[in-house]
Every structure is written in C-alpha cells, then in structure tokens.
Amino acid sequence: MSTLSIIFVGFGNVGKALYKLLERKREILDEVYGFDYRIVGVATGRHGMALDPSGLPMDLLLEAMNSHGSIAEFHRGPEIKDVFDFIRLSNADVMFENSPVSYKDGQPAINHIRTALEFGMHAITANKGPVVHAHCELTDLAKQQGKRFMFESAVMDGAPIFSLFRGPLPAIELRGFTGILNSCTNLLIGLMEEEKTFDEAVAYAQSIGIAETDPSGDIDGWDAAIKVAALSSVVMGVPLKPADVEREGIRSITPQMILDARAAGERWKLVCTARRDGKGGIKASVKPQRVRPTSPLFSINGTSSFVQFETDVLPGLGIVEGDPSPDTTAYGLLADLINAVRGQ
Ligand SMILES: NC(=O)c1ccc[n+]([C@@H]2O[C@H](COP(=O)([O-])OP(=O)(O)OC[C@H]3O[C@@H](n4cnc5c(N)ncnc54)[C@H](OP(=O)(O)O)[C@@H]3O)[C@@H](O)[C@H]2O)c1
Predict the structure, then answer these.
(1) Which atom, in ligand 1's list, is nearest to the CA of 127?
(2) What is the pLDDT of residue 1?
(3) Are residues 128 and 185 in the same domain?
(4) 197 CA to centre of ligand 1 in angstroms
C-alpha cells in the first residue's frame, strides 16, 4: 500500500471539511483503493503555513486555527518564504487548492496549481477561478507531467457533473444546459416568497453563513456566471469567461413581482442557460425568470441546485443536489483524489 503526502493550500470551510472526510474514509481508501495518506502541509492566508514531512498534528493545528492563532508553530524545516515556496518545499504527491475565488482572473489559485503540477503533484480544487481562466493550460500541463488537474467540486459541489462527461456519456452531443447554480440567490428568493424584504433575506442568509459579508458576488450573478462559464468551457468545449455570460442578478426582483408570480401559480428563479449558437459559439445567460410548475426548476428550494443537460440522445438529463454544505464540496474533492490515484 502506498502513502500519499497531501498538502492543503487554503484551509477554510472546505479544507477543514475535506480533512474530516478523509479521516472518516481512511479505512475505505486503504481497503478498497489501496492507499493511505499523510497530511504534510497546510497553507492559509492569515493563519500562516506549516510543513512537516512526518505528518502534521492536525488536531492541534485545528485547535490553534479555531482559537484564531497561527499554525506556524507546527512548521518543521527550512523557513518558508511564501505559498509557492511552501508548495515547492513540500515534496507532496497531491495538492488541494481551496483558496478564495477570483472571478476576474483566477489568481493566485492558477499559479498555486501551476506550481504544484510543475513539481509533480496532482492538483485538485473546488475553486472555479482556475477552471474558467486556465482550464486548457493547466490540463495540458498536468498531462505533460503525467498528473491530473481536477475540479469536480467547482460546480454543484459533490454532484458528479464534470466526471459525467469524462466517462459515462461517450459520443454524446451536448447542445446546452439550464439550471439553478447559485444556492444563495435561490435561498434569498425563497425567503422573499415568505414575505421577508430583500435586506431581511440577505441578513438572515448572512446569519446562517450562506451569504458572505459582501454578498454581491452571489446577488449580482457573478457566482452563477462563472459556473456557467466553467461548464461551457469544460463540458461544451467552448471557452467562456464570466464577462461573456449575459448577466443580471436578483436585485431587480421586487415583493410585488413575487406576489404577481404567485398569483399566476409561478415562481421567480435565477436561471442559468447555455446553448450552442450554431456558429461554433455559445449563447449563455444568468437572469431572473418566472417559471411554471411544469418546469423542473419550480420545485428547487432553499440552497439546493439543479442542472438539466440537453443532448442529442437524452433530451433532458437532470441532476438535483439537495441542500449542499462544505461536506458535499469535500466529497467532490475526495472523489477527484480517488479518480486521480486510479487514473480515471
Ligand atoms: N464553501 C463551499 O461549500 C464551496 C463550494 C464550492 C466551491 N467552493 C470554493 O472553495 C474555495 C474555498 O472555499 P471556503 O468556503 O473554504 O473559503 P474560506 O472558508 O474563506 O477559506 C479560504 C481559505 O483560503 C485561505 N487563503 C486566503 N488567501 C490565501 C492565499 N493567498 N493563499 C493560500 N491560502 C489563502 C484562507 O486563510 P485565512 O482564513 O487564514 O485567511 C482560508 O484558509 C473557494 O474558491 C470557493 O469558491 C466553496
């Protein structure tokens, strides 16, 4: 049995959930997939960095982080200058990159992943930035290095979206997709249907950790647009950037509009769509739309998400992900790890 050395770049909600899931699945990884792992490095933004080739004391490290302390006291070895130095010095087999997303240019995550691949690691991320801004470059680099760049969790968390088009649907022609890809706005619209004002809904979503302190990335449709761009780029093979997606967020939805929709038996949803334009491109949008009860989008509630693919042979193949959490995201990363190790 081999033992993989693992490093985490970014160790927030997702990184911590992944650590716990890895611990929970250690026996299955060993018995079914034939490998064990050792966590040899953790790098954060404000909590410092630590490498220990013999394995970090993760419980103590988590305790330090939870009491808002630095993790630098757990570092063993030469001084680390920056995250790139951390990646190079780690000698790891696998890097999990889960730093904050940059919608604009995907950095610094792209450079983290490039460095890890150059140093012979598999690079696995839930970060959408590198998928949209550097998918081809990083995939080619991984191939040259005999390693994998994987990102299942970047869209719809742990639901198998990208891997669906890697294997189980050979020779299929994907014509487009429709979905609800942003949990936060779906929750906010639902709260407005329960007669909360927009501001009350945002405050509630912030209080339960669904909306960020600055929720504009969700509310103005950027998160949904980057997911549409990621799906278009990877599963439809037409590179799009978030700015290429026609985008309108949910700020324009008023209580009266919600009431009018209800009176007609309809609901407002922030609908994501992409469809081939017949000229080699894709027309993609994120915008609020009224949906009827016959639409599969109608019954997607709370933080759940949904995508329906339109293909030449399966006219409507849909996937619902109910109430995701960082644990769900962690599962996509774990699945990527297993698939990278067994070459799938
Ligand atoms: N939350 C979800 O369920 C979910 C779902 C799908 C995808 N994602 C994606 O997963 C990624 C992580 O999300 P999260 O919820 O875990 O975020 P988070 O809780 O904010 O954690 C981000 C982590 O990255 C660290 N960090 C910040 N800047 C860094 C840098 N320059 N270099 C290295 N580390 C840095 C932070 O350290 P400090 O705290 O010390 O600053 C923190 O450990 C994001 O790209 C997000 O879009 C998240």
Answers:
(1) 45
(2) 67
(3) no
(4) 30
Strands (E) across 153-299 are located at 174-180, 246-247, 267-276, 282-291
Q: What is the CATH number of the domain that holds 205?
A: 3.30.360.10
Provide the pLDDT for residue 159. Answer: 95
**Contact criterion met (CB below 8 Å) for 292 and 266:** yes
The list of the chain residues with pLDDT below 70 reads 1
What separation in angstroms does the CA of 91 have from each of 52, 88, 94, 239? 11, 6, 9, 33
Tell me the CA–centroid distance for residue 292 and ligand 1, in Å: 36
How many other CB atoms are found less than 10 A from the CB of residue 234? 22
Q: Which domain holds residue 226?
A: 174-321
Which CATH number fits the domain that encloses residue 31?
Answer: 3.40.50.720
Question: Which of 227, 279, 283, 287 is labelled catalytic?
Answer: 227
pTM: 0.95
Number of folded domains that form the chain: 2
Q: What is the pLDDT of residue 84?
A: 98
- The pLDDT, as a whole number, for residue 299 is 96
Q: Which atom of ligand 1 is nearest to the CA of 326?
A: 3
Does 227 participate in catalysis according to the annotation?
yes
Pocket test for ligand 1, best of 99, 107, 218 (most atoms within 8 A of CB): 99
Ligand 1 atom at minimum distance from 157 CA: 6
